[in-house]
Specification:
CATH class of the largest domain: Alpha Beta
CATH topology of the largest domain: Rossmann fold
Number of strands: 15
Strand order of the largest sheet: 2-1-3-4-5
CATH architecture of the largest domain: 3-Layer(aba) Sandwich
Shape: elongated
Strand content: 25-35%
Order of helices and strands: EHEHEHEHEHEEEEEHEEEEEH
Helix content: 25-40%
CATH superfamily of the largest domain: Response regulator
Number of helices: 7
Radius of gyration: 20 Å
Length: about 250
Amino acid sequence: MQKYRALIVDDEENSRSNTKNMLQNYCPEIDVVGEAGSGMEGKVKIQELKPHVVFLDINMPGMNGFEMLEGIYNRDFCVVFLTAYSEHGINAVKAGATDYLMKPLILGELQGAIRKVIQHYEAKGGVGKGEADKNMVLINHSKGFNLIDFKDIVWLEANDNYTTLYLNTGKKIVASKTLKEFEAILPVTDFFRSHRSTLINVSYIKEYSNNEGGEVILSDGTHVQISKARVQEFGDFIKNRSVSPK
């Protein structure tokens, strides 16, 4: 049986637990790989776990479900909204939801949503189709957009409401998106906010020096400062990453 990875994003622990139990006990096609208690945590988990379907609560403090999706520009997973409020139906359709379920969940409706998810992937030829596209990031700019692999990004530099991306080809792209927005969509396992104005792909670090607090030299020869407030965090980040199993 084909298994589909699922992530549950809901600020209410009891609600997450109920959804998880129903999926595990009555939906054998679903493998619950993670949970998140907020929209921001949900973004991080999506990057890490690459789910096939996200069960997403709409009404969450700080960042609701719709706002969370707006910050994900290369969405390649199904979304099943969960809510106790019926008035969100039209917005759920506009957000491209696979289904929209009312709380408390009804088993038959949940299983119906799962069937829609399965039909979506079967229409694409299976869950393996398009897996390589999960590394792609949509970069909007003044003349259109670029679709690039995030692994090709060496580092990013903030410039007010714009961001300059420096690629491993030597090319630069000025994107009409803030550095904070890029930080939210790029994998937290690969990118580190070294300074208020810079985000680096740690895979391209060639050398580190503790000059003036901290400085890294990237593969393209660029010297990037590590802010004093982030030196310890940077050291922990690199240490944890270097011992992580492949």
